[in-house]
Design goal:
Catalytic activity (chain B): a guanosine in 18S rRNA + S-adenosyl-L-methionine = an N(7)-methylguanosine in 18S rRNA + S-adenosyl-L-homocysteine
Shape of chain B: globular
GO molecular function (chain B): methyltransferase activity
Shape of chain A: globular
Family (chain A): Belongs to the TRM112 family.
Strand order of the largest sheet of chain B: 3-2-1-4-5-7-6
Largest sheet of chain A: 4 strands, antiparallel
Number of strands of chain A: 4
Subunit structure (chain B): Heterodimer with TRMT112; this heterodimerization is necessary for the metabolic stability and activity of the catalytic subunit BUD23. Interacts with GRIP1.
Bound molecules: S-adenosylmethionine
Order of helices and strands of chain A: HEHHHEEE
Protein name (chain A): Multifunctional methyltransferase subunit TRM112-like protein
Number of helices of chain A: 4
Oligomer: heterodimer
Number of helices of chain B: 11
Helix content of chain B: 40-55%
Helix content of chain A: 25-40%
Radius of gyration of chain B: 19 Å
Largest sheet of chain B: 7 strands, mixed
Chain lengths: 124, 271
């Protein structure tokens, strides 16, 4: 699971859960794979993501690098910043771990990089 | 011919064996690729821009690879662990999640620039539907789909509806969730080439009455599909597609039609 995905995942489909965001990460195995850098895409995605959630996740995984606490101005021209965001969003991957619902504590296991968001019938 | 969705639920049907056979079959690869190309065309994304897309029922990533090739970043969900394991083994670029669309898409609001789904939606109406409460699953699915799309974005499904009732049911559930749009059929009169798409739009026309959705869809979709730069209309396809469709129609009526050739639909040069 990449941090871009984590930035969007919510457990609000669970019965009784209202926001279900952000899911807490508990990681046991993390890997980094190189992904082609596309500055336009990153610049476009930055306003959509929850930046503080990204920072916290990257920090926890030990990959915050030189990411500043806040999004700087004129990101389009700030290649260094875009590269850092690119790395955190797309190159860092949780291979094994858990995602934990902030409201109910329900755990969603991540195995072989695939988060299991399936619910039991009585949870829907 | 029996329908796989009548045989077993999708997570059982697409086991390791089936997932492997599916992904290695060159004919399947070719068909899925073509249909995803078409779905991508129907999404009408801004030209030359990388977008963030969701692939529902992404399976082993055959459809997702088409999205990659067009420079998009994608996330996929699927209910079959075996299919997703193969996607991982094949090192697709997209990130994949094990999830059942009928339980609601697990995303926060307004994230995706578009959604494609190739050959998966008919599974949502599978044999266990009484147990699962089909209506509820459809409502949960379409409302979560509407929510996770960026305003103005589209979702395009290629799928194999079992009959007209099923198609109507899906359309009305989508409409109830706030979507406009509806069915779009390629090669409607050719049994072999016929392909059904459900083209759903957020924003735009919002007050389409439920029962007239089906009849209106063609023109609703058509209107919004007008291409700004006057390029080929992806809904109608190329001139050749149009001629081929017309020929198909004529053949169906047993009229005499010239054989297709590589020149079919080409402009002839005048001397
Ligand atoms: C024919 S395959 C298509 C896979 C891929 N889109 C392609 O073009 O090759 C249909 C896929 O839909 C998935 N599917 C069926 N029901 C589903 C559900 N309720 N939620 C998510 N995925 C589902 C199946 O597991 C299967 O991988």
């Amino acid at each position: 699971m990449k941090l871009l995905t984590h930035n969007m995942l919510s457990s609000k489909s669970l019965k009784g859960v209202v926001v279900g965001y952000p899911l807490k990460i508990e990681a046991y195995d993390v890997k980094v794979t190189e992904v082609e850098f596309n500055p336009e895409f990153i610049a476009k995605v930055i306003p959509k993501i929850d930046y503080s959630v990204l920072i916290r996740a990257a920090e926890y995984l030990g990959h915050v690098g030189k990411l500043p606490g806040h999004v700087p101005e004129n990101v389009e021209k700030n290649t260094d910043f875009l590269k850092e965001v690119h790395h955190a969003l797309l190159e860092v991957e949780v291979v094994k771990g858990d995602l934990v619902c902030p409201e109910s504590g329900r755990r969603f296991p991540i195995t072989d990089g695939i988060p299991n968001m399936l619910l039991n019938e009585d949870e829907v | 011919m029996s329908r796989p969705e009548h045989l077993a639920p999708p997570d059982i049907f697409y086991n390791e064996d089936e997932a492997r056979k599916y992904t290695c079959n060159s004919r399947i690869i070719e068909i899925q690729t073509k249909m995803c190309e078409r779905a991508l065309e129907l999404l009408l994304l801004p030209e030359n821009e990388s977008c963030l897309l969701l692939d529902i029922g992404c399976g082993s990533g055959l459809s997702g690879e088409v999205l990659e090739e067009h420079g998009h970043t994608w996330i996929g969900i699927d209910i079959s662990r075996a299919m997703l394991d193969i996607a991982k083994k094949r090192e697709v670029e997209g990130d994949v999640i094990l999830s059942d669309m009928g339980q609601g898409l697990p995303f926060r609001a307004g994230q995706f620039d578009g959604v494609v789904s190739i050959s998966a939606l008919q599974w949502l109406c599978n044999l266990d539907n009484s147990k699962h409460g089909l209506r509820k699953r459809l409502d949960v699915f379409f409302s979560s789909l509407f929510a996770c799309l960026r305003n103005g974005a589209r979702a395009v499904f290629q799928f194999y509806p079992e009959n007209d009732d099923q198609l109507n049911l899906l359309e009305s559930a989508a409409c109830k969730a706030g979507f406009s749009g509806g069915r779009m059929i390629d090669f409607p009169n050719s049994k072999k080439a016929r392909k059904v798409f459900l083209v759903l739009m957020t924003g735009g026309v919002t007050t389409v009455p439920v029962d007239s959705l089906a009849q209106q869809s063609r023109c609703t979709v058509g209107k919004n599909m007008k291409n700004k730069n006057g390029k080929k209309d992806p809904l109608r396809g190329t001139r050749r597609d149009w001629i081929m469709k017309k020929k198909d129609r004529f053949r169906n009526k047993n009229k005499e039609v010239k054989a297709d050739s590589k020149y079919t639909g080409r402009k002839r040069s005048r001397f």
